[in-house]
Amino acid sequence: MSQPIPSLPASAVMTIERHILMEQSRFPDSSGSLTNLLYDLALAAKLIASRTQRGALTDILGSAGHDNVQGEEVQKLDVYAQRIIYQLTDHTGRLCCMASEEEKEIIPIPDPYPTGDYVLVFDPLDGSSNIDYNVAVGTIFAIFRRRTPSGPGTTADVLRSGREIVAGGYLVYGSSTMLVYTTGHGVNGFTLEPSIGEFLLTHPNIRIPDKPKYYSVNQGNEKYWTEGVRRYTRWLQGEEGNTRALGLRYIGSMVADVHRTLLGGGVFYYPADAKDPQKPQGKLRLLYEAVPMAYLIEQAGGYGSTGRGPVLDVTPTSLHQRTPVFVGSRDLVEQAEAFIARHDG
Ligand code: AHM
Ligand code: MG
């Protein structure tokens, strides 16, 4: 049974560990596996942050010399982030399997380690094409409870709708490192204090603001968009019957763009486009990018849509499936759905 977590004096310093434990106290019957899994991810994030922040100093920038399963160039930090998350979670007995944007198939738990009750899906280093330019990158993750009863996890444990997530969030490696996560009871943000190596609660109970500031999209793709998306964008710019124009911000790192949208209000979208016939659904992946972000944004009072309905209602049919995605302030995302329904049939 879920119980309210006890309140703390406003002056209390809340470490990530304490917060995760307090979240666990909502569930007196919990085994602690989920709690420890979140703590494993926080530790992985510290290691990834420390590597990203050294940047070119350790001569780690640039390509690792091979392509990932999406046919995109892999950066060395992607490889590092992938390995760290795997090594910190493969042996703990908390997971039955994992799936990563950087791996073609599901990642089994190696012998002789025990399998556990949860499934981790993640994008180890999202926005990695930005690394060479010292732009913020991030890690995105979602956790599900396994569906199969025991033994090694299978694809059926991984291909799940966002309605089944038990925890999700992201890490942003920017001017500071932040961990933002939810277990379905609101969204909390922690900032890494580098001098003591601890994540401290700096953004309790994040709610997406009512007054949106920015829209965020790669406008260079406009000629490949559908009529509905084009007109929607004009609406955001204060045309098509709208009197309130928004400013444009686009970093090109989903984590950073969604983080700004979460804190400042607005909408981030990567629509379907006709640029690459191999990717008619746009660029972003349902399982590793759209679903965790839609879940988190909805926990903060916003909405995540494919343009045709909730992202969280879509059950993936393949590991690396792509989807159009619109996330942010609810009314702005609903407008996207209305424009697409009206103009794109
Ligand atoms: P990646 O997972 O290969 O890094 O690609 C995903 C990234 C997102 O972070 C970002 O929103 C998008 O690609 C930007 O794409 P584009 O350069 O087409 O605007
Ligand atoms: Mg990515």
Write a structural description.
The protein has eight helices and 15 strands. The chain has 345 residues and is α+β, with helices and mostly antiparallel strands. The chain is globular and about 60 Å long. The longest helix has 22 residues. The N and C termini lie far apart (45 Å). Helix 1 runs antiparallel to helix 2. The protein folds into two domains: 188 residues, Fructose-1,6-Bisphosphatase, subunit A, domain 1 (Fructose-1,6-Bisphosphatase, Chain A, domain 1, 2-Layer Sandwich), CATH 3.30.540; 131 residues, 3-Layer(aba) Sandwich (D-Maltodextrin-Binding Protein, domain 2), CATH 3.40.190. Strands 4-3-5-6-7-8-9-10 form an eight-stranded mixed sheet, with helices on both faces. It has a five-stranded mixed sheet with strand order 12-11-13-15-14, with helices on both faces. A two-stranded antiparallel sheet has the order 1-2. Bound molecules: 2,5-anhydro-1,6-di-O-phosphono-D-mannitol and magnesium ion. The site of 2,5-anhydro-1,6-di-O-phosphono-D-mannitol has 13 residues, from strand 5.
Give the SSE layout.
Layout: H1 16-24, H2 33-54, E1 63-67, E2 73-75, H3 76-89, E3 95-100, E4 107-108, E5 118-126, E6 137-145, H4 155-158, E7 165-173, E8 177-182, E9 187-193, E10 198-203, E11 214-216, H5 227-236, E12 247-248, H6 254-264, E13 266-270, H7 286-299, E14 303-305, E15 325-328, H8 330-343
Parallel strand pairs: 3-5, 11-12, 11-13
Antiparallel strand pairs: 1-2, 3-4, 5-6, 6-7, 7-8, 8-9, 9-10, 13-15, 14-15
Helix pairs in contact: 1-2, 2-3, 5-8
2,5-anhydro-1,6-di-O-phosphono-D-mannitol binds at residues 72, 101, 123, 126-129, 218, 252-254, 270, 283.
